[in-house]
Amino acid sequence: MDNKEAIMVVLGKRLRIVRNAKRISQEKLAEYAQTDKNYISEVERGLKQPTIEKLYTITQALDINIEDLFKGIEEEIQSDFNI
C-alpha cells in the first residue's frame, strides 16, 4: 500500500469513528453533506479520495473541525502501515 492509499484508509477510518460516536447513519450523513450514501461508504473504506470541498462539507455535517481530522495522522499511518 502506498502513502496515498494509507492516508485515505486512515482518513476514512477517522470519519467512520466520528460518525458512529455521534450516532449518525451513513444515510443521514450523506443527506447532511448533500451527497450519496455510497460515496460516504467509499470514503470511509478509503476507496474514494474526497476533494477538500467535499471533505469540508462532510466535517461540517459531523460538526467537527477539518483540522482535527488530520491531527496525528502521520503517526497513525506509520503505526498502522509502517510507511
UniProtKB/TrEMBL annotation:
InterPro entries hit by this protein: Cro/C1-type_HTH, Lambda_DNA-bd_dom_sf, TransReg_Diox_bact_type
Record's signal peptide: none
TM segment ranges: none
Native organism: Aquibacillus rhizosphaerae
Protein name as it appears in the record: Helix-turn-helix transcriptional regulator
Ribonucleoprotein in keyword set: no
Family matches, as Gene3D superfamilies: lambda repressor-like DNA-binding domains (1.10.260.40)
Domain of life where this protein originates: Bacteria
Domain HTH cro/C1-type residue range list: 15-69
Keyword list, A-Z: DNA-binding
One Pfam family linked to the record: HTH_3
